[in-house]
Amino acid sequence: IPSLSLPSSMHLIQVDSVQRWMEDLKLMTDCECMCILQSKPISIEKDEQNELILSSQYNTCDNLQLLLKRAWIISTELTRIAQKLEKNRWQRVHSMTVRVNCHVRSMINEYNAITRNSSEEMQQYEKLLIDKCSEFTAFTERCIQTEDEQLLKSMKSCINETLTTIAQYFGQLIELVLTHEAQNLLRQIELSDSVYITESAISSLFSLTQEGAHLCRIIAKEGGVVALFKICRQDCFRCLYPQTLRTLASICCVEEGMHQLEKVDGILCLADILTDNTHSEATHAEAAAVIAQITSPHLTFTQHLSSFLENMEEIVTALVKLCQDASSGEVFLLASAALANITFFDTMACEILLQLNAMKILLAACSDKHIVDTPYSRDQVVTILANMSVLDQCASEIIQENGVQLLMEMLFERSSSGNSAEVAACERVQQKSAVTLARLSRDPEVADAAVKLSCIPRLIKLCRSPTERNNSDSVLVACLAALRRLAVMSPDGLEDSDFQQLVKPRLVDSFLLCTNMEESFV
């Protein structure tokens, strides 16, 4: 079977299966009735029809959600048809083909009822798709009316080809529809002077960005980043800055968004917003979120970072102040995440942080449970500490601010909810705190403080007990490295068996020994 070119914009929402069924049921229709009616609406007066359409459609966002759900159903059905075709289950193939035909017609009718000025190209693909679906239904109907195996075998390749063509036409139509809707929203943002209309359009645009990277690429290509930064440069739209910046952060997860940001001097605009004290905390927090997104170490494209370096000192200073003045855990998380990312790509950022007394500010925040209230926030703080710990001056700061105590506490980080994302964050906190201890223990004073706080027994426990580190290999490696560094500074702190198994062998041998340990529950 040829591989189907299904649209990459299909975004499967992870929900309870019964809930998914209940939602899909609203879009399902009786196939036989639909075949007879050919998706034509029951005739009513023109005015009544318009009233019905208006009352059933809420806004652009709801319309697009309906369209995407219908498209997801069609995409799923096409995949299932290919699977049934492989097994020669002709009766199922035909019934599913009829259902797809109905869904395609319904989707097109629903969209045409709510859209304005659809392009000729869209209308062309609508006709091609409907014609090909009708042809497909006729093919499969012939297949269930014959038992001639040879004829079925010869028709199978033709059906495969038709199925692939339908998938291609469907994907291209969805792409055109989404592009058309993005263009309409961006036109509203660019042309409207009304705060209400602009806010509604930005809200719908943000909803589109949540449907996945493919839609973010479409929006970026259609000039979404340019239009949104234009809003961020107009004082009359100040109340919309947080919402606008949140949408920008979503679009900038893709390379096309980054290119657009670079073209419009977006980093300079973000620096201006962050350093302007007349803006609200919410605006500063969302600007920090954009900075966190564009400096993410996971991104493979970094062309924009050259202009970032020019404004780095201003941005870092503003972010440290935001951490210090944060009124909530969310604001602190966004500001510290941006700082953590910045420390990855330039050591100058770490030097600026030292000059700004950032370590004192971050460690003080950690003692406030209302501000640093989740493993995610502690992950950002310990990331900054780990990256700053490469600087020699960092050790005295850590001692002065009682930072070794905090690192020790972080070695005990455990998830309270069992949520997989939170568990992963706890692992990162344990790993990075061990890495920071290993780096800082170059300094005898830090090593001495770590030994006095019983870091060695805790590191041994993490090495020997898989459940303590949630079976994480990265935590194990970091703990072995920290233990070896402390053992050099304080060899009396280890029992002989620990020394022989965890310190004396090559690190890889100790690693293999610990990963093969079976924990005793006696």
Automatic annotation (TrEMBL):
Residue intervals of the Protein inscuteable homologue LGN-binding domain: 13-57
Which GO molecular function terms does the record list? Answer: cytoskeletal anchor activity
A GO BP term, please?
Answer: establishment of mitotic spindle orientation
What Pfam families does the entry give? Insc_C (PF19427), INSC_LBD (PF16748)
Q: Where do the Protein inscuteable homologue C-terminal domain residues begin and end?
A: 70-522
Tell me the first and last residues of the signal peptide: none
Instruction: Name the source's superkingdom.
Output: Eukaryota
User: What is one GO cellular-component annotation here?
Assistant: apical cortex
CDD domains from the entry?
Answer: INSC_LBD
UniProt-listed PANTHER family: INSCUTEABLE (PTHR21386), PROTEIN INSCUTEABLE HOMOLOG (PTHR21386:SF0)
Under what name is this protein listed?
INSC protein
Q: Which organism is it from?
A: Hemiprocne comata
Q: What is the lineage of its organism?
A: Eukaryota, Metazoa, Chordata, Craniata, Vertebrata
